[in-house]
Amino acid sequence: MSAVLVEDRVVTPPPVRRRSLVSALGALPTVVLLLGAVYCLFPVAWVLVAATKSTGELFSTTTLSVGSSLVANIGELAGYRDGMFWRWMANSALYAGVGALLSAALSGVTGYALAKYTFRGRTLIFNALIAGVLVPAVVLAIPQYLLMSKIGLSDTYLSVLLPSVVSPYGIYLARIYAAASVPEDVVEAARTDGASEVRILGSIALPMMVPGLVTVFLFQFVSIWNNFMLPYIMLADDGKFPVTLGLYTMLKQGNSVPALYTLVVTGSLVSVLPLIALFLTLQRYWRIDLLSGAVKA
Amino acid sequence: MTTRVSGRGGAAPKVAPYAFVAPAVVLFLLVFALPIAYTVYLSLFRTEVKGLGLGKGGRSEVFVGLDNYWRALTDSELGAGALRVFGYGAILVPTMLGLALVFALLLDEDRVRARGFSRIAIFLPYAIPGVIASLLWGFLYLPGTSPFNQLLRELSLPEVDVLSPTGIYFALANIAVWGGVGYNMVVLYTALRAIPRDLYEAARIDGCTPLQVALRIKIPLLAPALVLTSLFSVIATLQVFAEPTTLAPLTNSLSLTWTPLMKVYQDAFGRGDLYSAAATSVLIALVMFVISFGLLRLTRSRAFGGER
Predict the structure, then answer these.
(1) How far apart are CA B44 and CA B64, in angstroms?
(2) Nearest residue in A to B178, CA atom
(3) What CATH number does the domain located at A78-290 have?
(4) Which ipTM was obtained for this model?
(5) Which of A261, A297, B76, B95 lies in disulfide reach of A180, CB 3.0 to 4.6 Å?
């Protein structure tokens, strides 16, 4: 029955009554959607153009006319305080890359355990982890800073990395993904064959969970790369700043040194390029459907 | 998804699950539980200065009970900040979710063109950090660099200053809408794709227009997903910090205590009063918990129906 209906939908043209209504509305739905796309792309397009302008041009020329200073701007950005910008980019890559990798691994192991074993305290642990999502970042960041400084870890790479590794969100996703993608009988069969639990996890479960863990990695990568408050509170030495914090400090000085605005614009462009590249190339792993719990793997 | 533990494969693993969750639990306790406990502890104390406050023992921590909470609750700047965030959220959340819903419904219509392109384009800002988004929009707002103001100038129309004390609400809400609309659109669109197509066919045969299908079938069935997206949006709204902090250097409309979280930061690091900052943080967390659980209670069975 449903197969017939599906075919019907594809093959037969819509009834005349509906078609007339559609033509009355014309291309309105498409136009609305495209307007949304233009709205979302506009600031990106603007920064692309603005990054080509010199400081003088930034404040004087017509907004969407391309300037001539892109190379000069990038050169100036690279030279800013002996390559400080590249150092910030490297720091961001380090925080986000290492943090997301550790986070995905931890989420995978924890999510698998929570999904596939029944043990005392399982519900308690899961609920406590989920409640962690709701705790506002600042409630954590300030005492985290105080505790880190007590053990002498404030203003270190670890102070930003450590709090980024546990991701309640990631564990939640990994649990859903483990429940959906690791079949019970496979685990049982391996157990019957005498495989140890660690071996089942390492050679059977985790490999099956890889697509889900890539998703966790991506979400965590973006959330660490985007995190502003944690490094803002933890770090004092600007040599350890991630690029977001670095650009913010440049913008703050821009009030007195307008030439820095050009560098901030160029820096903004350069700093989003890796994220956009990651976003476009790994598109199929952006599995937002996992978030709604609607996964049917 | 409960685990069947059959007798066939030998004894049920007893130690393994604990060993597997141990690293996460330990880190969670260190990075989440301990700081929360420490915040609550700090919120009950205050520094008291003895004599001139010099030398060892000149300053001491004294227990003051709920006094810091009372001070926070009666602090006019904090109350004003809460109202500002409420106003900002009242603009942001309905606009963002309304647009996300419209875009999701359009993506679900077979007749609409350029859907693949639009979906990627609208989702793209999600990959851009809030700070960078604020920088980009900041330049688009700044009268000196704004293309909108330039256009108005060329048309000899009066210029608009979105960085004015009133405009700033819209300026900030716009940055958040821009960054979040695509994400919510994809969540809603995914929920739409999960609705059995036969339902639409039945409605169409009964003579429903696509608009009626959207209003009477799709939107009611999207209710759980809408609750979920509202919940996450409200939580994110209450935590707003990076965007106003980044825009602040560009305008006088944003004080350093514009939102409650900015006030917490100022209390802690600007004035060095960790105790007030701790009490305010706990209050913000409580408000968030009440709102979150209230929203979830309202429709828990529907929102999390699939995952038990």
Answers:
(1) 6
(2) A40
(3) 1.10.3720.10
(4) 0.84
(5) A297
